[in-house]
Amino acid sequence: MAPWDYPDFDEHEGVHFFRDAASGLSAIIAIHSTHLGPAAGGCRYWGYVKSAEAVTDALRLSRGMSYKNAMAGLPMGGGKAVILADPAVPKSPELLAAFGRSVEALGGRYVTAEDVGISDADMVEVSKQTKHVSGLPVAGGAAGGDPGPFTAHGVYLGVKAAVRRALKREEMAGVHVAIQGVGSVGGGLARLLAKDGAKLTLADVNADRAKALAAELGGEAVPADAILTIEADVISPCALGAILTAESIAALRAPVVAGGANNQLATPDDGWRIHARGITYAPDYVINAGGIINVGLEYLGQGDRAEVEKRIAEIPGRLETIWRESATSSEPASIVADRMAQKLIGR
Ligand code: NAD
């Protein structure tokens, strides 16, 4: 099937398939838009069951990056890479080098970074083949490095803004936040919230990870399939996408959904469903822009860590603008945010 025959095709500028027999690399790089600048977005390493799922993920994630970068005020377009992880093939330096050559072949139209399953050490391997890479380890005070903690910080500020708006609470002490996925983003968020005295319920498909963090921070761990229906003040999806469906939205028992995962809404209709339930929803690509702000400024060579923090601190204001407009127009926050982003990228 051609990329444009997929339901998630959105006039992407290019969808590129790469194969390297020697290292076992199979990768897809989707470029949604370069209207604002080079298409920036991380590389996901994931064990897709079917390659069509990888194409769909690349299409959806790259469009999300166009919207995210535009809304974050970065002069960058949107793209995304996915590496189809094969249990029989190790994530070797050779495989990462082959991926680096794939990025280089696009001549700077796509700039890569970390995403799920890819570390900053992996990016160092990639950078041996291409300069179109960000998220590399940097000296203290400079912009750049692992985007995870910066994403977590932006999500933390966004969760606080949502709690202020929905619950009229200024402090997070005693506010109950249920976090789905406690990896780089969800784990970082949990630590920040714990410092504020929030009540935490944590879940991860890696149950030991959730249990260990809950023990460390004084929260509770629950099975992964129970987290979305926890009665809490905030549900924070920080694992994978498409978890907000007709069924899961109907079962939510929290007034706020605000988390770092990309593409949380399974379909645009789910934005309407969450709105109809009166739940305050933080559009994912707005609340989770902290990481791309960090690596975007690193790649562009614009500004230092202080500039990154300043721009991340603008995330709550952006969310508040969206929620205000949503209240005025009686449209879901997701639709309002999409419209703002589309205008910025000339669509
Ligand atoms: P990560 O791999 O460090 O952590 C993800 C965690 O989610 C893992 O612990 C994994 O075991 C868990 N998980 C997977 N499926 C789950 C499920 N069904 N239920 C519960 N837990 C599950 O990844 P990350 O960097 O923390 O990214 C998390 C999400 O945030 C992803 O959607 C990613 O695209 C998005 N995101 C990440 C960044 C970043 O800077 N890392 C930036 C923007 C968006």
From TrEMBL:
GO BP term, pick one: amino acid metabolic process
Lineage, highest ranks first: Bacteria, Pseudomonadati, Pseudomonadota, Alphaproteobacteria, Sphingomonadales
Domain named Glutamate/phenylalanine/leucine/valine/L-tryptophan dehydrogenase C-terminal: residues: 145-346
Catalytic residues (UniProt): 80
CDD domains xref list: NAD_bind_Leu_Phe_Val_DH
InterPro entries xrefs: Aminoacid_DH-like_N_sf, Glu/Leu/Phe/Val/Trp_DH, Glu/Leu/Phe/Val/Trp_DH_C, Glu/Leu/Phe/Val/Trp_DH_dimer, Glu/Leu/Phe/Val_DH_AS, Glu/Phe/Leu/Val/Trp_DH_bac/arc, NAD(P)-bd_dom_sf
Top-level division of the source organism's lineage: Bacteria
Keywords: NAD, Nucleotide-binding, Oxidoreductase
Keyword Nucleotide-binding: yes
GO molecular function: nucleotide binding; oxidoreductase activity, acting on the CH-NH2 group of donors, NAD or NADP as acceptor
Organism: Sphingomonas chungangi
Family: Belongs to the Glu/Leu/Phe/Val dehydrogenases family.
Name of the protein in its database record: Glu/Leu/Phe/Val dehydrogenase
Binding residues annotated for NAD(+), in chain numbering: 181-186
